[in-house]
Amino acid sequence: MAEGAVVVEQGPSGRPGERDPKADELSAAVSRLRRALAAHPARLPDRDAAEDELAALDAMARAGDPEVTRLRSSLLLVAGAVGSVSALAPALGEVREAVDRFAEHGAASRPEGRG
Questions:
Q1: Would the pLDDT of 111 be above 50?
Q2: What is the pLDDT of residue 4?
């Protein structure tokens, strides 16, 4: 690389600096659920597991081009941990819808370790 050269990341469309709107939606939905979970006063036995998987979902969204099967696995773990709490249902539904958008738009569904 030449001295003074600038590296610009390309988004999913191949245009420099463009972020995938689906990733932004997922990240925003995860943030809302994290806030709702943090504000929920009841002791949840699997709260730590839910928080860990929400962090993983957010990291995948921010990294771009997440693997759909991994997104769904994380969503399943979060749903299992907080799904019985009706106060968290709307925020959990938003995360589910955001994950579903990746599958609808043909996001990569490659096995882990490949790609």
A1: no
A2: 53
- pLDDT given for residue 49 in this prediction: 94
Supply φ then ψ for residue 10, to 5 degrees.
Answer: -105, 140
Q: Exposed/middle/buried for 9, CB within 10 Å: 0-12, 13-18, 19+?
A: exposed
Asked if 50 contacts 44 with a C-beta cutoff of 8 angstroms, the reply is: yes
- With bands split at pLDDT 50, 70 and 90, how would you rate the model's confidence at 35? very high
Q: What is the DSSP string of 30-97?
A: HHHHHHHHHH--S--TTHHHHHHHHHHHHHHHHHSS--HHHHHHHHHHHHHHHTT-GGGHHHHHHHHH
Instruction: Note the Cα 37 to chain centre separation in Å.
Output: 16
Closest by alpha carbon to 30, among 7, 51, 2, 9? 51
pTM of this structure: 0.75
- β-partners of residue 16 are 10
